[in-house]
Design brief:
The complex is a heterodimer. By secondary structure, chain A is mostly beta strands. Chain A has no helices and nine strands. In chain A, the strands form two sheets. In chain A, strands 1, 3, 4, 7, 8 and 9 form a six-stranded mixed sheet that branches. A three-stranded antiparallel sheet of chain A has the order 2-6-5, with no helix packed on it. In chain A, strand 7 and strand 8 form a beta hairpin. By secondary structure, chain B is an all-beta fold. In chain B, 0% of the residues lie in helices and 49% in strands. Classes of the chains: A mainly beta, B mainly beta. The interface between A and B is medium-sized, with 27 and 25 residues.
């Protein structure tokens, strides 16, 4: 089955740039979606189709893919960005949606 | 505004049955597949499958096939997730979410663009 690998955690100071990676075999050929989940809340879509932003999501959030890695970039990180972030793709071989294990972003 | 509202906390005993609900509003409920996602305490998101409200056509993750049943009642814009006999290991948070775009027999690449608030299921003797 298709596996998405994310670093378990990332810590940085407010105002810095966060780059959260999602590794998968030839992930650049798939549509990658990213979700933010703040503590005690439902997930929220922040990037879809690799790099598109839903309405209401700040421009500080952006996505990119290349080769075997997809990246969610958060510029000028704020306290409110402290959350778990999950990548997700559709695996056409197993006909399943797949989530990455999630990355916990801590803002120091 | 698109909204998905889920039913409330459930506390059940092992062996009992359960059906939780997800009601949509603010869009044509029949037009989009609804997905179900499990989150065990302190863990990540797991895709359970999807259901098409118009005819209850369902696709299940292999991990959940035979363990749960999806259904829908389009007359009241509601999708359901059902267990016939709960186990303690079914305890967790369950989210419904709307799938954007078309789903074919072997392709459903769209994202989950709107989510319900979650239903907590506690199974304990």
């Amino acid at each position: 089955s298709y596996v998405l690998t994310q670093p378990p955690s990332l810590s940085l100071a407010a105002g810095q740039t966060a780059k959260i990676t999602c590794g998968g075999d030839n992930i650049g050929s798939r549509s990658v979606h990213w979700y933010q989940q703040r503590p005690g809340q439902a997930p929220l879509l922040v990037v879809y189709d690799d790099s598109d932003r839903p309405s209401g999501i700040p421009e500080r959030f952006s996505g990119s893919t290349s080769g075997n890695t997809a990246t969610l970039t958060i510029n000028r990180v704020e306290d409110a960005d402290e959350a778990d972030y999950y990548c997700q793709v559709w695996d056409r071989e197993t006909v399943h949606r797949v989530f990455g294990g999630g990355t916990k972003l801590t803002v120091l | 505004d698109v909204q998905l509202v889920q039913s409330g906390v459930e506390v059940k005993k092992p062996g009992e049955s359960l059906k939780i609900a997800c009601q949509g509003s603010g869009y044509n409920f029949n037009d989009n597949w609804i997905g179900w996602v499990r989150q065990m305490p302190g863990k990540g998101l797991e895709w359970m499958g999807i259901v098409y409200p118009d005819d209850s056509d369902s696709r299940y993750s292999l991990s959940f096939q035979g363990q749960v049943t999806f259904s829908a009642d389009k007359s009241i814009n509601t999708a359901y997730l059902e267990w016939e006999s709960l186990q303690a290991s079914d305890s967790g948070m369950y989210f419904c979410a709307r799938v954007r775009g078309y789903c074919g027999v072997t392709s459903c690449p769209g994202e989950f663009d709107h989510w319900g608030q979650g239903t907590q299921v506690i199974v304990s003797s």
